[in-house]
Every structure is written in C-alpha cells, then in structure tokens.
Amino acid sequence: NPAIGNAPESMTAVTGKRLVAAGEDLRNESFGARRIVLIGDTSYIGYSQLTQGEWRILVKSLNHKTGALGDPVDICPGTDDHSVMSLVADAKGKLHCVSGGHGALKYVRTERPGDMNSWTSPEQIGMGTYPMLMVDRDDGLFLFYRAYKQTDLAMQTRPADGEWSKPAVIG
Asked: How far is the C-alpha of 42 from the C-alpha of 164, rounded, in Å?
C-alpha cells in the first residue's frame, strides 16, 4: 500500500507534529508490509534507523486525542540497510513485529495490549528479508518473506499464543 509510506507527511499536516525525523527509514519496499497500526485512538509507527553504526528497529506512538507523540522504543536490532519491518495488532491489542534484512528474521511482540514497555526479547524465526506479517480473526499470524536464497517466497504461521511453524517455500 503506497499510502503507508506517505502517512507521516499526511499525519504531520493533521497533527502539526513530524512523526519520523531525518535519518529514520519508513520506506515501503517490503511487499507493502504495514508499518503503521491504529488501536483505538493511538497509532503505532514502526521504522528502522541507523544508530551509532548499527541498524535498529524502533516503534513510537501517536495519541490522536491528545496529540502526544511518544518517545521511540528500540524493540530489536536490525541486520543491515535492508532492515525493514512489518507491524500488526491482534484483536486483544497486542502488537506483533517481524523484522529482517539480509539474514535473520526476528519476531517480537508486546506482552500487554498497547504497552510500549512490554516488548519481548527478539526471537529468531527464520532467514530472509522483506517480511510481510498478517493476523487473522483468531489472532493467528501469517508471515511471508523472500527466503534467504533471494529467489523463493517463503511462509510461516503461528497460531495465537503458539510457536512458529518451519518455513515453507510457496513460490
């Protein structure tokens, strides 16, 4: 969805606040993966940033009622300049994120709904890049990504509160 990449500029016009600063990467090259999630009155914005020579995955929040923009929360290390991420929320309001560059895919989630201070430690779940994460009505997760060989499309699934499946090449 090309609008995802433009969301910070359009939100700036509405809120008067810049959501991402110079050097923060909100590019949209990951199968159209979501990086902005709305839960109630709060948007959660995920992005990658080069910090002291290391790529990091960060999330910040914007409360639409108060206009308060939360501080960025560092949720996991990136891999390289292709460290893109995909962010979704389940029906309970817990955030789920998969990030990956040319290497390990990492999964993190909030343990409490909408709580930016409750991110789990990163879990390596596969090897690949350009992750796209989706959630179904039963809070199951579906992950699609370019497999590490850089020629195959792979998929993994995770039932609500379950474990990730092994990667399956689907294309």
From this structure: 28
Q: Quickly tell me which residue has 């294309």 as its tokens.
A: 171
Mean pLDDT of 58-77: 94
Give 163's DSSP letter.
Answer: -
Whole-angstrom distance, CA of residue 1 vs CA of residue 24: 19
Question: Which of helix, strand or coil describes residue 3?
Answer: helix
Closest CA to 143 of 97, 101, 94, 110: 97
Identify residue 38 by its one-letter amino acid code: L
Going through the chain in order, the beta strands assigned E by DSSP cover: 24-25, 36-39, 42-51, 54-63, 73-77, 84-89, 95-100, 103-109, 123-135, 141-147, 153-158, 168-169
Q: pTM, whole model, 2 decimals?
A: 0.82
Per-residue model confidence as pLDDT tens digits over 118-140: 999 999 999 998 899 999 999 99
- For the purposes of burial, counting CB atoms within 10 Å of the CB of 117, is it exposed (0-12), middle (13-18) or buried (19 or more)? exposed
